[in-house]
Amino acid sequence: METRKVQVTGGSTYTVSIPKSWANDNGVSAGSTVEFYPEGDSLFMTPTGDDDRTEGTLDITGLEGTELIRAVTTMYVSGFDVIVLESARITNDQRRTIREATQSLVGLEVLEETKGEIVIRDLLDSSELSIHNAVTRMRLIASSMLEDALLALRDLDRDLAADIIQRDDDVDRLWMVVSRIFRATLRTPKASEELGLPREICFDYHSSARQLERIGDHATKIAHLTLNIEREVPEEVLEALDDLHEEVVTVIDGGMDALFTDDSDEATKLANDVRERVREVDATARRIDELLRELDPARAQHLGLIVDSVSRSADYGGNIAETALQKAAPTPGSSSAHTE
């Protein structure tokens, strides 16, 4: 860490020198323009670039299938606007996999293809992306998936179950968008300014989006289990599951409402209420487990896994409420934080 003294020039302008080593490393010299971004009691400075779009190159030699998809996804989430995939010779299978990966990520499109290179570009303007809207959309999709998963179970509706499994891709795409936006705010203060949100809030949204993605995963798990159930589920169990789901929805909605409100007192009240309701969900889940003991072991096992997935969704809603509590708490240096 280095320190500098603030000086006054011209009688009214504050000036401070910058470390020469930092200036050299970042191409800053006499006459260069730099950008300042205030955030709370901090002031971030960055060099002004001619082109904010970042390019990354990846050698995909030997990468196939899931491994190749994961590599492209990682480059996307890391924040590269232009992704260049290189190899001595890109195979047809690799090309198909790359197109599949590109179609599963928001904003990406293949721009150029040659024998040994594929160029992918993010066509979305980062300043137009909204992490709040992405998380809100995740909330709606994940909640509808969970509701429809139990409806599919009640009617043993295999078409609906298959649709829920497909909808999980929509949640995953939005999760990747949220991750990409969040990592951008860590990399440069300009991204946070364009979003109009402090980086701490972006972190809270990112953490909550992860919980919503997991709720979507459990709805998908219920749909897969439903596809393997041949006999109708006893009405008594279905009614108990409906009660459990109603309690879980209250937890998830309460957690998200606490996260999104700007009123700290209201957020604290909502979040604490959610924590109490999670205990009620656990009690309801135990009562259903008692009902399942009267069924044959195979059916009891399948339905037990479904009960577990529904109740775990409440746990994730509780995690969102915990994040909301942290968001509502005073921060060091704020007017509401006091030291003795």
From TrEMBL:
Q: Which Pfam families match?
A: MazE_antitoxin (PF04014), PhoU (PF01895)
One GO BP annotation is: negative regulation of phosphate metabolic process
For molecular function, the Gene Ontology terms on record are: DNA binding
Q: What are the residue boundaries of the SpoVT-AbrB domain, all occurrences included?
A: 8-53
**Name by which UniProt lists this protein:** Phosphate uptake regulator
* Organism of origin: Halohasta litchfieldiae
